[in-house]
Every structure is written in structure tokens, then in C-alpha cells.
Backbone:
């Protein structure tokens, strides 16, 4: 069961799967019982999942996965885009099976003191990383971008209010999203902005947030080996305090970075 | 009770289980008690700061992985100033893995480490395949290996371990050359050069092209190298390569290793080293072995009869 050895911040836990269900045509939802982990996990952190189905089939290495739900009832939820061997193995898990979880890992989001209203800009399954901000204090307005309406997963995000933009009707085009964000910044200025899931949207939000003087953060993704900061496989280009570009580990210094310090990928 | 203390040259370890360089860091202290390990082994430190290789730095295989990280780091002086204070928090002996681009650079770096409090031993990484063009390294040939080892030996009185490479025609000859040049122990072995190609882009999967292959699939090769070296030299051998379980560790010790390093397995099971240690004790207890050192070389040809008696 999930009782981390005392004194260790990170635990490897065999978690009973409570729910396993497809979401739309391309995504999958996993909810596991993990009371100790759930109590220690903060919005924006991730876990390193052993992607083995009940028969033990799956890839050798673990896969990093954002925590999508941090349940007050001691559950953790993951929302995955099923696209490779690892996520396919996870999608084959059923209620009653076991998921081997290492976590919580990385540095999560930080809200400015007294933030009352935040805006999140998410593309695709990137919304999973941002979802725990809902209910963390401030009112959350989401701008959700997806290929088609069936992929949107607005219910999975659960924002207080949201705008949806799609590739299928052209509303997700950068100039249209820029106009939408500008309207929002001018009519209901957020105290902070957050994004995940798209390089293009990251660059747009970085530029607009700088122009409006709004602080923000981006959650980055990267292939990982150890997930703990030991192998230096998952580095991204991030500016340090002096503006020099440095390699920082997404698993350790991230996955959440300052919006203005991160570089495009 | 099983006696676990392990002598590696002039150094006595509490037990024979330790991490493999490059797969370990102080970060693991957030998961487990590092002081239960026989030793701590740092990522390779280089005299100069290095950015590391192009991404992707890792490619997964069926039961292992290829890596080409490129030894990123801030250089030896920054290591001594910034990383050493953090390492000194732990009581387990600290082995600093040292890599350098020339014999002279090895000597200068070894002298700096010898003057640094808290370093229990140097592990000379003369084998990392990413360092030089086309994967060439000192450890490929007995002559170049011996030159690097002799330079470190002359520059520092610290216990000197030398990490060999599978990427050589005659590992026994390299092992003997390193022993003659002053190595107190051999770490056998580093990753073996490998390659993976993305067939959609027709490009290598690793940013640097080739990479070092490690993990369970590599174990039989590493075990064979230990077996060959154990019959070639009189100094202790530290076995490394694909060890994930206590049974793997027992195999390496029976093949002639005095101690073992666990690397890639820690990526999948963060407490793999403790599982190996606990399992090693359980194995010895079950077999009535009172000193883990009794396992060393049990399976070597010359000792087969002894073990049976």
C-alpha cells in the first residue's frame, strides 16, 4: 500500500487501479488509489509510471506522466494520449490491476501571492498538466485548443469558464487566439498565466504576457530516463537569472519553468 | 549473519553494492538511504566544463537502452567547490569518476582531486565511448590505457580504480596493462557502443549518432568481460553491466567480481541497489555462506573444484 518510508520525499508505490476508461477516440483516463502520494503531490508535478499491463507487457523504461487529478479522497488521476507502446500498455490496465508509480516528481506551478484570477492556455492533452490549478485557489479561465471538438476534453479540465478553439474551424489559428487573449487580458486581466502542450501557443503567450506585464509559467515535456535528475537526458534550454541560456533538467528544475525564461523547442 | 565488508585495494567498503557512474546522483537520497550503499560513485567529472551532446540523448531498446549524454558538467573546479560539499553530507565512501581528454589533463585533474577532502577513491573513466571521435577512448588499446592510468597514479596517492571498456579487441590485455600501470581495481565494464535508427526519418535515434548500450540485455557481455579480466589480473574487479537483481550480482561475483555496480536498473526501480543488497544477503544466508567474499570467483575454471568441495 501507499505508505512512503518516513523521511523520503519520493516513493515507489504499487497503486490499485480504480478506473480505466477511454476518453474520446485518442485519450485514456486512469485513476489509482494513492493516499500518501496524493497528499504530497502539488499541481504541475508528475509521476514516473511503469507502463506494464496486467500481463507484464510494456516497454523497459518508465514514462513521465503529468498528474491530472489530485483527489482529496486519496486518488491520483492521469490523462494520457495513447500514442506509443507505453501509453498503450497503460490503457490496457483495468480496475483492480496495479500501477507502479514513482513520485511525486519535479517542481510544480507557483501562484503569485494573492492571485485571484488566472488564465491557462492548453493544447490537446497538455490540459492534463494544467487541470490541478482548478480548485487550487484562484478562479481559472481556460483557453483550450484542440484539433476537433471531439478531442476538446473541456469536462476533463473542469475550468470555471473556458473558450474553445479548433483546427477544424480555423479558430485555433495564431492570429485568432492572439485576438482572443488580448480581449481577455483587457476585459478580465489575469494575475498569472500558464500554458502547456504547444510550442506555438507557448511563444504567443510568452510574447503577450511580456507585453501586458503578466507573470506566467510553462510546463515542458521531454523524453526522460530516470525522472529523478540523475541521467541528464531531459534537458531544455532555459535562461538563467543573468539571461544566459543553460541546460536545465525538465524532471528536476522543471517541468514548470518561468514563461519568460523558457526557450522555444 | 553474513559478513559483507569488502576490501577493494586499500579501501574497505561496508558492502559490495554501489551505483554505476552516470546513473546516480545525490537526488536519489530523496528515495532511499544512500548510506546503506558500499560506496557512492559520481557522474564522470571532466577538467573542463562541457555542454553535453545533442538531443535526443537516450533511445530505449527491448530490454535496455542506448545513451549518448556527453558528460555535461561545469568542470572539475566547480565540482570541487559546489558538488563536493553536498557529497560530504553522506557517510558512504565517495568515489569520484574522472574523465579527461588527454594524459596530461588526467594527471592535473587527479592531483586536484588528491587535494580535495572527502574523496575516497578515483575511478578513472578511460572508457566512455562518447568522448572522442568515432567512439575511440584510452581503454581501446593497452598502451593508451596504461598511459592514462600511469599518469593518474603518479599524480595522486588516492586509491585508483580504472573503468574498462567493452569496445576493445583484447580486454585481458588492457586489464593487465592497467594493473601494471598501477590500478588498484578494475571496473568492468562501461557501456558497449551501439546504434538505433528511426526508420521514418532515416536518422540515428540519438542526437550524437552512436551511443553506449546498457541494461539487462547487455548483461551476458559484461559478465563475460568480468570472467576474462578475473583470469587475467590479480587486483579486485568491480562488475557492472545489466545488473538488476541480486541473482545478477551473484553471477558477477561468481565470475570473479569482488563488488558490483548497479546502473540502468535504478532508472526503472529507484531502490534497485538496496534490493540487490538485501537479496545478496538472503542468497548467502540460504546457501550457508557466511562471508560474501566467498562468492568471488566461485565459477572461475580454476576454482570449480574448490567450490564443489
Residues:
Amino acid at each position: 500500500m501507499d505508505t512512503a518510508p518516513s523521511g523520503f520525499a519520493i516513493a515507489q508505490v504499487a497503486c490499485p487501479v480504480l478506473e480505466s476508461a477511454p476518453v474520446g477516440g485518442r485519450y485514456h483516463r486512469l485513476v489509482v488509489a494513492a493516499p500518501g502520494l496524493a497528499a504530497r503531490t502539488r499541481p504541475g508535478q508528475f509521476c514516473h509510471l511503469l507502463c506494464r499491463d496486467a500481463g507484464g507487457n510494456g516497454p523497459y523504461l518508465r514514462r513521465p506522466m503529468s498528474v491530472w487529478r489530485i483527489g482529496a479522497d486519496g486518488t491520483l488521476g492521469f490523462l494520457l494520449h495513447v500514442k506509443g507502446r507505453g501509453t498503450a500498455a497503460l490503457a490496457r490496465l483495468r480496475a483492480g490491476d496495479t500501477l507502479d508509480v514513482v513520485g511525486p516528481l519535479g517542481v510544480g506551478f507557483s501562484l503569485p501571492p494573492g492571485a485571484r484570477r488566472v488564465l491557462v492556455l492548453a493544447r490537446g492533452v497538455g490540459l492534463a498538466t494544467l487541470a490541478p490549478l482548478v480548485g487550487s485557489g484562484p478562479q481559472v479561465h481556460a483557453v483550450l485548443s484542440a484539433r476537433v471538438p471531439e478531442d476538446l476534453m473541456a469536462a476533463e479540465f473542469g475550468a470555471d469558464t473556458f473558450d474553445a478553439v479548433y483546427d477544424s474551424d480555423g479558430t485555433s489559428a495564431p492570429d485568432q487566439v492572439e485576438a482572443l487573449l488580448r480581449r481577455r487580458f483587457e476585459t478580465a486581466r489575469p494575475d498569472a498565466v500558464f500554458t502547456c502542450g504547444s510550442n506555438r501557443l507557448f511563444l504567443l503567450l510568452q510574447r503577450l504576457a511580456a507585453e501586458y506585464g503578466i507573470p506566467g509559467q510553462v510546463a515542458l515535456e521531454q523524453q526522460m530516463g530516470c525522472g529523478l535528475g540523475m541521467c541528464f537526458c531531459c534537458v531544455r534550454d532555459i535562461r538563467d537569472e543573468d539571461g544566459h541560456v543553460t541546460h536545465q533538467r525538465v524532471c528536476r528544475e522543471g517541468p514548470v519553468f518561468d514563461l519568460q525564461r523558457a526557450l522555444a523547442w | 549473519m553474513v559478513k559483507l565488508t569488502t576490501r577493494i585495494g586499500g579501501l574497505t567498503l561496508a558492502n559490495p553494492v554501489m551505483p554505476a557512474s552516470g546513473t546516480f546522483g545525490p537526488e536519489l537520497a530523496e528515495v532511499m538511504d544512500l548510506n546503506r550503499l558500499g560506496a557512492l560513485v559520481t557522474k564522470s567529472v571532466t577538467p573542463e566544463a562541457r555542454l553535453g551532446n545533442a538531443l535526443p540523448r537516450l533511445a530505449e531498446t527491448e530490454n535496455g537502452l542506448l545513451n549518448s549524454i556527453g558528460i555535461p558538467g561545469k568542470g572539475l573546479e566547480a565540482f570541487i567547490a559546489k558538488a563536493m560539499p553536498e557529497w560530504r553530507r553522506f557517510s558512504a565512501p565517495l568515489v569520484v569518476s574522472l574523465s579527461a581528454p588527454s594524459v596530461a589533463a588526467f594527471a592535473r585533474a587527479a592531483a586536484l582531486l588528491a587535494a580535495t577532502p572527502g574523496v575516497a577513491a578515483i575511478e578513472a573513466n578511460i572508457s566512455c565511448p562518447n568522448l572522442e571521435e568515432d567512439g575511440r577512448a584510452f581503454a581501446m588499446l593497452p598502451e593508451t590505457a596504461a598511459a592514462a592510468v600511469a599518469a593518474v597514479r603518479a599524480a595522486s596517492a588516492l586509491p585508483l580504480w580504472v573503468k574498462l571498456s567493452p569496445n576493445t579487441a583484447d580486454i585481458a590485455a588492457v586489464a593487465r596493462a592497467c594493473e601494471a600501470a598501477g590500478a588498484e581495481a578494475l571496473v568492468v565494464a562501461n557501456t558497449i557502443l551501439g546504434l538505433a535508427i528511426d526508420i521514418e526519418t532515416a536518422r540515428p535515434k540519438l542526437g550524437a549518432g552512436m551511443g553506449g548500450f546498457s541494461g539487462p540485455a547487455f548483461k551476458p557481455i559484461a559478465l563475460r568481460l568480468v570472467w576474462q579480466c578475473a583470469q587475467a589480473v590479480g587486483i579486485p574487479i568491480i562488475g557492472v553491466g545489466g545488473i538488476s537483481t541480486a541473482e545478477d550480482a551473484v553471477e558477477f561475483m561468481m565470475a570473479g567480481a569482488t563488488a558490483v555496480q548497479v546502473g540502468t536498473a535504478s532508472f526503472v526501480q529507484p531502490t534497485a541497489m538496496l534490493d540487490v543488497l538485501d537479496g545478496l544477503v538472503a542468497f548467502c544466508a540460504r546457501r550457508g555462506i557466511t562471508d560474501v567474499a566467498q562468492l568471488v570467483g566461485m565459477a572461475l575454471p580454476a576454482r570449480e573444484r574448490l567450490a564443489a568441495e
The first strand of chain B starts at residue 6 and ends at 8.
